[in-house]
Amino acid sequence: MATAVEHASLVRTRATSPAGRGVVGTLLLYALLLILSVVVLAPLLWMLSTSFKTTGDATALPPQWVPPEPTLEGYRTLFADAQAPLLRWFGNSVLVGVLHTLLVLATASAAAYPLARMRFPGRRVVFAVIVATLFVPGFVFLMPNYLIVDGLGWLDTVWALVVPGAAGAFGVFFLCQFFASLPAALEEAALIDGANRWQIFVRVVLPLSKAPLATLGLLTFLASWNDFLWPLYVLFNPSQLTLPAGLATLRGAYATDFPAVMAGAAVASVPVLVLFAFVQRYVIAGVARSGLKG
Amino acid sequence: MTTVSAADTARRGPLVPAATTTRPATDRRTRSPHRPRWWTPYAFLAPFLLIFGTFVLVPAVSGVWMSLHNWDFFLPDRPFVGLQNYVDLFTPGALVAQQFWESMRATGIFVVLSVPLLMTIPLALALLLDQRFRGRTFFRAVFFAPYVLGVSVVGLLWQYLLNGNTGLINGYLAELGVTEAVPWLTATPWVWVSLVGVTLWWTMGFNSVVYLAGLQSVDEALYDAAKVDGAGRWARLWHVTLPQLRPVILFVLTMTVLASANMFGQSYLLTGGNPSNETRTAIMFIAEVGLEQFRMGLAAAMSYLLALLLIVVSALNFLFLRQKES
Fold it and tell me: Do A287 and B210 touch (CB under 8 A)?
């Protein structure tokens, strides 16, 4: 069975063609990787650099990678704008992301447990319906869900972003795969001890599933943090927006104030990049796993 | 692992002490481990199914219902119009039909241009990362990093970089002697180069990671056997790696086609659908009609047409790649 360690290192270090690469080959490999890294990272550095520039320096030619006169003007402009409450957006995004992730983890793990470990009438049908929706493109639900969210009085509230997305089948499917791989002996031992299913779920199954839960949690948080189309249309009040929806409004308001726009982009991206640096193993393992199961 | 956990459970003591210590086994009525309460699994499923039913099953049905009505968000009457919304979309000369198919064309162009690049470049990258060298975990994370940024950040960033007058890209092109500014975000064909290029920058790491996992699950013995048979590097790639990767390739292809067909944010933020709506994608048009003009019945009809098309394309992908296998 997959222990926490094995799961995290699913994308393990292994070489398929170790032999036959000389010094020249190795140098070429590193040269290629470095060039690609520069292509990937340069735009991000440019974003950071610009956020500390004056508006004049932001468009100066030739391009200046190090701000000639470093300033916090871009950040100050944004923080002072009541129509663009960046910190509020940041808080909304954190709140939505955390609540949504907790809801997904709770409901998906509870649903995956009986589907993976119990026999009951209707199990096959429920599982088939849930899996079938994995293949239905999400935009089909856009119009009706807008009406449902409106009917619930959730338009322009965090609930519009927290709850509907938790209906996705991926989490249930993902956890089912893992729960099904746990040995039956664990449950049998607990059942003989007189534990009921709920106690087994909370005290045996969940503690053993920390790694897949962490992976699912991170992927869910990331998707919520970056969700764009839905918040763009279900949120209206500037103080209610999440970062992605809010940033889109900067485009018009600060069309030429590039330091301010890049300051907004930096506030939205630096925290997730730092988080990613620490947990990249879990995120990448989760993505890799989804491919192998498909 | 098993023994540790069993011991762990044992250390905490019996979870329901009374049941095991004071009563004989035959007397366990309601707590019997072999006859659990019938509703237990349903209770576990209930919270998810409530949300799933409300936001997936109900909309799946009510969306069809909407598409058969002239469903305007602000009108009190939403008369039943049968298939009229669908008929309108196939009426040559009707404005909405023309706009819809123009947006479908934009989505189609984006899929055709982006999918081949999003399939091949990440595969090359994965093959590169599958070698043994110091720092591969680091490089893998670097290439994946843009994916953790949302499309909003990506859109704002590249709108600035690709700006015709003041952007970094044109700035460097000018340094290289390209005197005429390239209209990256305002004129064809440059808009397509920008949209595809930005999407590649943003998501190639994601596809690479999926490929890489597939590469690492290829049985090493197959490579050894091929080497014994005298197969060179390319022969091994062609005759061992790619055939072994087929299921992963199929998965990446299906996922990439779907993601590209869902393209919204890049056009919304980078080109605004311009020039003259040429890069306004189907999703962008559906959102405009449904959620800005609130002609939701019509928008629902358009979503179903697009979904049907995508399901057909996915099925064809699947059949095509399956057939090649046999």
Answer: yes
Q: Are A161 and A223 in contact (CB under 8 A)?
A: no
Q: Provide CB contacts within 8 A for A252, sequence distance 6+.
A: none
Are the beta carbons of A43 and B201 separated by less than 8 Å? Answer: yes
CB atoms inside a 10 Å sphere around CB B211: 26
B87-142 confidence digits (pLDDT tens): 999 998 889 999 999 999 999 999 999 999 999 999 999 999 988 888 888 999 99
* Any A CB within 8 A of B1 CB: yes
Specify whether the CB–CB gap between B217 and A12 falls below 8 A. Answer: no
Question: How close, in Å, is residue A40 to chain B by CA atoms?
Answer: 7
Question: Would the CB atoms of B214 and A291 count as touching at under 8 Å?
Answer: yes
Residue range A31-56, pLDDT digits in tens = 999 999 999 999 999 999 999 998 88
pLDDT in tens, B175-201: 888 888 899 999 989 999 999 999 999
Q: Which three-class secondary structure state does DSSP give residue B69? A: strand
With 70 as the cut, is the pLDDT of residue A258 above it? yes
* Contact: A245, B157; criterion CB under 8 Å: no
Residues A143, B38: C-beta atoms closer than 8 Å? no
B290 touches chain A (CB under 8 A): yes
* Residue B186 sits at the chain A interface (C-beta within 8 Å): no
pLDDT for residue B305 is more than 60: yes
A233 part of contact set with chain B, CB < 8 Å:
yes
**Cβ–Cβ under 8 Å, residues B271 and B194:** yes
CB-based contact, B14 to chain A, within 8 Å: yes
Q: Pick from A185, A3, A207, A203: which is nearest to B13 by CA?
A: A203
Query: Among candidates B122, B206, B210, which has minimal Cα distance to A289?
Result: B210
pLDDT at residue number A47: 95
pLDDT higher than threshold 60 for residue B16: no
So what's the pLDDT on residue B11?
Answer: 39
| Contact by Cβ (8 Å): A292, B248 | yes
**What is the length of chain B?**
326
Q: Inter-chain contact A17–B131, Cβ cutoff 8 Å?
A: yes
- For the cut 80, the answer to whether the pLDDT of residue A237 exceeds it is yes
Q: Does A145 touch chain B (CB under 8 A)?
A: yes
Architecture of domain B93-325 in this structure? Orthogonal Bundle (1.10)
Domains and CATH numbers, chain A: 19-81+254-277 (no CATH), 84-245 (1.10.3720.10)
Three-class HEC string of A142-185: HHHHHHHHHHCCCCCCCHHHHCHHHHCCHHHHHHHHHHHCCCHH
Say whether B152 and A273 touch across the interface (CB within 8 A): no
Does residue B156 sit at the A interface (CB-CB below 8 Å)? yes
Q: Which of B27, B51, B215, B234 to mutate to test the interface with A (most CBs of A within 10 A)?
A: B51
Residue with tokens 């499309």: B151
